[in-house]
Design a protein that fits this description.
Chain lengths: 313, 523
């Protein structure tokens, strides 16, 4: 029972912290550009504003358009409950499967792409087509880097992978971790519509990928989608952080352990936020047809991770 | 004088039916021509190396009993102009079209047809240009007796060229865009992500600017000219004032002419710098944008200090300039510091391979396409056309100053950005020269009274390119007709040509590298 409430608390924590991560990255980016920038918590005000606005829906939209934001948000919250963030659940262990987590996130993307097509606007279709191109290229990378981890840990269970790495720190220097991490990091950027694949801060409809897909959304629906994509980004980074570098994560529900786990998570996410912000400041957006080149590079990394793991064994 | 004499000889030899030939201001050949002779004229003058820079129609039915159409041709470098006037039947005005062999003429003619109701004979593409579907049917705003009736949507779509075939789809963009920019509709035909064709539909900001000039005193036209396009205050004000001065036979004092160079270059500087940043921003490289905007702000504050207006409004007046430069204003140092600052940002951008990869070979406008479509300004120079009014038809004090005209040949986004970076450097040296050699004396001369109905024009290289203002005054000294040609009018049609074979997500970058004005085009 204590664990159940801990899992619920952990899920809520992720849901509440996720927009802050995006806000933090925006703020660091502004600072790196010598701008003052909006404070990291500005994004919460934006979400509140969107929730208070009316919803405008195209006459041609079907139930899919209304259902998609809920599905996207729902799947993201479910995934949040699976991923070890502050502590590794034991009793709920069985549900925390890596495949389940990654493909639940993809399910949300799938429905968002359908919703983009649903209204029949040119931008939605364009965005959906581009998003599917990107996702089709990222999916094998995701599957392979998971596979590399699962090979070394002997399980696809998230908790088990983290525990095994904790038990055998040498594993973190193994090829699965060293090659798999950058692969998953690139994929996390691509899946969350960050530079250099997509530009989250552009107002140019024609260059958008993710934003073009959700251009028709307004009000609370848009808030849900924005929140869900922040959560997805948070979870992908948390997955990368806690699977590849699990140190600090609480292995029991003792208050001190939990506190340490929370601190470790905060530090890891802050480091990743700085890394993303610096990267996004240094790079420009890739030409759309060069995106496959970057994604195939990440695929090759993941493939090497799997192959070298086989050899090392 | 000799050049003009040989022009006259050449035209006579080509059997162009000229009459009433006058030479004005040493470089302008004014003549009258029957409507039937314009085809000859339109072919003969370009053969001598001149290009059509302006066509203007006026409703002179009440005084002269006719519609008048004027053609202005300019020959760069040799610096001569041919100004020909044809008069058309007041009841059924008809004009033979030059459109089948002169692209800019075809656009001027479509405009004439919309605003004056002139029927075009054998025009290759007689679709409306200025006129939108909701204009009343027989409403021609530049008729002196025009009355705007009920405006209502006629419900008919604009006849866009359609591209057919399997897998080809249309993307309508605008007129309302996601950013805070002016309205324009773009109709893309794309195959996957590859652009097959793009047709812009503009004139959503048609404000009747030319009509607003009518009846104003010449001095009162300046504030209108300054607002033709918000970012080209000095360019348009200067072209307008030069036109008035030409009409009145007034020459601005030498110190004023130097200061005009200073203000025009300051305008070029802040626009070029901001736009280089904006191009970088469209590749997602926001750092460059943030810093270019900071430098722009620095220059705007300098503008404010010098003229009281960040956008240099109110600085240029007929007869000279309204503000004098105090000694020790520190302009040279401030501009040099801003440019040094800018050079650092440019260095960072050009060292970034990801940014360069986006700019290179994107949006190539070939030299032939640019020449055929009469493209002007930095876009022309990036495509290998060596055109610059400052050198080709010197005005203000440019004949006393030295500067280079940067020309690139690749015609891509990178070339357009590079030309502007080079021009920033040249503007820097011009500002330095002006401040060092600034002559003493008055900055304002009294504007004489223009001779009624004697057309005169001013031509200026604004930061976008060649700006032409054409004025004609009425008997009571008020403005009777003012025609404005913003460089955007000629450059907009070249954008679709640069897009061919590019991908849809690169359009914003191409568009930004052209950065045509909507307001200046729509008037």
């Amino acid at each position: 029972m204590a664990e159940l409430s801990a899992v619920v608390a952990q899920t809520l924590l992720a849901v509440m912290l996720a927009p802050g991560l995006v806000g933090l990255i925006r703020w660091i980016k502004a600072r790196l550009q010598s701008r003052r920038g909006a404070p990291p918590w500005q994004i919460y005000f934006e979400l509140r504003k969107l929730f208070a606005k009316e919803i405008v829906i195209s006459r041609t939209a079907s139930w899919l358009f209304r259902a998609a934001p809920l599905i996207v948000f729902g799947t993201s919250v479910v995934v949040a409950s699976l991923v070890p963030l502050v502590f590794i659940p034991v009793a709920f262990d069985r549900t925390g499967d890596l495949f389940a987590a990654v493909y639940l996130l993809l399910l949300g993307t799938f429905f968002l792409a359908l919703a983009g097509l649903d209204t029949g606007s040119a931008f939605g279709g364009m965005g959906s087509s581009r998003e599917m191109t990107v996702v089709a290229l990222t999916e094998p990378t995701v599957a392979l880097s998971i596979f590399a981890l699962a090979l070394t840990a002997g399980s696809t269970n998230l908790g088990v992978i983290a525990t095994r790495t904790l038990a055998d720190p040498g594993m973190a220097l193994g090829p699965a971790h060293v090659l798999g991490f950058p692969a998953l990091f690139i994929v996390a950027l691509a899946e969350s519509g960050r530079l250099p694949i997509d530009n989250p801060s552009t107002h140019l409809e024609l260059t958008m990928i993710h934003e073009a897909m959700v251009l028709e959304y307004s009000g609370p629906y848009l808030a849900l989608i924005e929140w869900a994509s922040a959560l997805k980004f948070f979870l992908l980074l948390a997955l990368a952080a806690n699977l590849f570098v699990p140190w600090g994560i609480a292995q029991s529900l003792a208050p001190l352990d939990l506190l340490a786990g929370f601190a470790a998570l905060t530090v890891k996410m802050a480091i990743l936020a700085v890394a993303v912000a610096v990267l996004e400041t240094r790079v420009a957006k890739l030409r759309l047809f060069r995106v496959p080149e970057l994604l195939s590079a990440s695929f090759v990394l993941a493939l090497l991770a799997v192959m070298s793991t086989m050899f090392v064994r | 004088m000799n050049a003009l004499q040989s022009v006259v000889d050449g035209l006579v030899q080509a059997e162009v039916p000229l009459s009433d030939v006058r030479i004005r201001r040493g470089v302008e050949l004014h003549c009258t021509i029957p409507a039937a002779g314009v085809l000859r004229l339109g072919q003969a003058v370009p053969e001598m190396g001149a290009r059509l820079v302006l066509m203007v129609g006026e409703d002179r039915r009440s005084q002269a009993g006719a519609f008048l159409v004027h053609y202005l041709f300019a020959r760069p470098r040799e610096n001569w102009f041919v100004h020909a006037t044809a008069s058309l039947d007041p009841r059924a005005p008809e004009l033979p079209s030059l459109g089948s062999f002169d692209y800019p003429a075809s656009r001027f003619e479509r405009e004439l047809s919309d605003v004056l109701g002139i029927r075009l004979l054998q025009h290759p593409d007689p679709r409306p240009l200025v006129r939108h579907g909701f204009w009343p049917e027989h409403f021609h705003p530049l008729h002196k007796d025009a009355e705007a009736g009920e405006f209502a949507d006629d419900g008919r779509p604009f006849p866009f060229t359609e591209v057919g075939g399997e897998g080809v789809y249309e993307i309508p963009v605008g007129p309302v865009h996601a950013g805070v920019i002016e309205p324009g509709h773009f109709r893309f035909s794309a195959m996957g992500e590859t652009i097959i064709d793009m047709k812009p539909r503009l004139y959503f900001t048609h404000k009747g600017t030319e009509k607003l000039f009518e009846g104003r005193r010449p001095h009162e036209g300046v504030e209108l000219a300054e607002r033709v396009s918000g970012d080209t205050t000095v360019g348009h004000a200067l072209a307008y004032c030069q036109a008035l001065e030409a009409a009145a036979g007034t020459e601005a004092p030498r110190r004023a002419r130097y200061l005009r160079v200073l203000f025009l270059e300051l305008e070029r500087l802040y626009n070029h710098i901001a736009d280089v940043g904006a191009i970088a921003n469209d590749t997602g490289f926001a750092v460059a944008h943030a810093h270019c905007y900071r430098i722009r702000e620095r220059l705007l504050r300098l503008n404010k200090r010098l003229t009281g207006s960040r956008l240099l409004r109110g600085a240029i007046v007929p007869g000279g300039v309204a503000v004098d430069l105090a000694s020790g204003a520190g302009v040279v140092d401030e501009v040099a510091a801003a440019i040094a600052d800018f050079e650092e940002v440019v260095g960072i951008c050009f060292a970034n391979t990801l940014v360069m990869d986006r700019l290179e070979r994107t949006g190539v406008l070939t030299r032939t396409a640019a020449e055929d479509h009469g493209v002007v300004g930095f876009i022309a120079r990036a495509s290998g056309l060596d055109l610059d009014v400052r050198r080709d038809h010197p005005y203000a004090a440019y004949d006393e100053l030295t500067f280079a005209v940067p020309v690139m040949t690749s015609g891509d986004v990178k070339a357009r950005a590079l030309v502007r970076v080079e021009e920033v450097r040249e503007s820097g040296t011009l500002v330095g020269q002006v401040c060092r050699a600034l002559p003493d004396g008055p900055v304002l001369a009294a504007l004489g009274s223009p001779e009624p109905h004697q057309p005169a024009f001013g031509i200026v290289e604004g930061w976008r390119g060649r700006i032409v203002h054409w004025v004609s005054t009425a008997d009571d000294g008020t403005l009777d007709r003012v025609k404005i040609v913003d460089p955007s009018f000629l450059n907009w049609p070249a954008l679709p040509l640069a897009l061919e074979g590019n991908i849809v997500p690169d359009f914003p970058l191409c568009n930004k590298s052209f950065n045509c004005s909507y307001s200046g085009n729509d008037l």
